[in-house]
Amino acid sequence: MGCVQCKDKEATKLTDERDNSLTQSLGYRYGTDPTPQHYPSFTVTTIPNYNNFHGTAGQGLTVFGGVNSSSHTGTLRTRGGTGVTLFVALYDYEARTEDDLSFQKGEKFQILNSSWYFGKLGRKDAERQLLSFGNPRGTYLIRESETTKGAYSLSIRDWDDMKGDHVKHYKIRKLDNGGYYITTRAQFETLQQLVHHYSERAAGLCCRLVVPCHKGMPRLTDLSVKTKDVWEIPRESLQLIKRLGNGQFGEVWMGTWNGNTKVAIKTLKPGTMSPESFLEEAQIMKKLKHDKLVQLYAVVSEEPIYIVTEYMSKGSLLEFLKDGEGRALKLPNLVDMAAQVAAGMAYIERMNYIHRDLRSANILVGNGLICKIADFGLARLIEDNEYTARQGAKFPIKWTAPEAALYGRFTIKSDVWSFGILLTELVTKGRVPYPALKIAWHKLLLESLRAQSRLLAAWENP
């Protein structure tokens, strides 16, 4: 039987014996660690450190995972909340794809989970996040290098009288023995040591590292596991909270799903499109997943049709450009927004899809000037004589390529035409293209396009 305290003492004794035996067996298996120990509190010193990785100061490494025959790695970790996890390879592994990493038995791998590590983040996306409102000078992040495999980039928000707020980028190179450096005069065994060094002094950088860049909420790709494949949801699960806009074919609302998840809800007027055709098209739209496309979450297919998508806080690009923050945007911001739309449209092209209605009203803006394409593919389903006639008041003829407007031939090339018109909307801060032509003159516009007339350059053009 025995008392509880006796059992606890016995359990502690057995645990210590197992830890000691495991340390001894690792020493017998791998030999002595050839790397000098700078931190005397390390308790595991018997695994060869081929990559020369260490934890940060003052905390020990402890085996906590044990050996698993179904895994290629055992696990080490630091106890001090250092943001580093170390894995030790138990077997050799040969990369099978270009995204895989080959390794040999006994190698250590440093898994970065520090708040400043952003992984595969592009240069432009890094600048966008660092220049977000509220980040002070010295806000920084580390990301994988886009140009050099195995290297990293340090991106820092800076300010000066000439450029104002801007971002500086520094290449972090990797040493053959596993260390890191920005300049060869200062080399470090880990990225954590590098960050600590430049947090105390600028040492040649534009400024000292002050605070890691804030990471936004991860992008929600589905409302739940259940809606990933079965995404027809009951109307009762949606709550319409605030009307955001009113269009020709329905309304857009900010709402919630199940009372806890903020979403955008597009409500379509009865008769706008066939529920059967919409469901068929929505199945394709649901498969399109890209960070520059507004994610379709779910639908209510019974009329009035509800389309549930991710919520974008700044609304449509058209309205955003007309006042406030959007009105004050400079050319570099506008070029970046255009590049985001181009990235999303390039993905649509790769997926052999066509938007058919690309314009600023169908681009949504979120925090940090993030732009995403909305309403892709829906134009094909609209059942309205004023729209399908392609010359009616509801048809977006000023954004439509001549072959699409005249003969109904929509291709990715006609989307490229629409993208060109969208660029004029950007530089004119939302002004309607062909401002001299009224709706009643659509036929005249078609005739001038057929005669290869071109849109006159706006005086605001850079």
UniProtKB/TrEMBL annotation:
Query: Has keyword Ubl conjugation?
Result: no
Gene3D superfamilies linked: Phosphorylase Kinase, domain 1, SH2 domain, SH3 Domains, Transferase(Phosphotransferase) domain 1
Repeat as UniProt keyword: no
Q: Which residues form the Protein kinase domain?
A: 238-462
Please classify the protein's predominant subcellular localization into one broad category.
membrane
Q: Which InterPro entries match?
A: Kinase-like_dom_sf, Non-receptor_tyrosine_kinases, Prot_kinase_dom, Protein_kinase_ATP_BS, Ser-Thr/Tyr_kinase_cat_dom, SH2, SH2_dom_sf, SH3-like_dom_sf
Instruction: List where in the cell it is found.
Output: Endomembrane system
Q: Which reaction does it catalyse?
A: L-tyrosyl-[protein] + ATP = O-phospho-L-tyrosyl-[protein] + ADP + H(+)
Q: GO molecular-function annotation terms?
A: ATP binding; non-membrane spanning protein tyrosine kinase activity
Superkingdom classification of source: Eukaryota
The UniProt record gives the binding positions of ATP as: 266
Q: What is this protein called?
A: Tyrosine-protein kinase
**Organism in which the protein naturally occurs:** Pyxicephalus adspersus (African bullfrog)
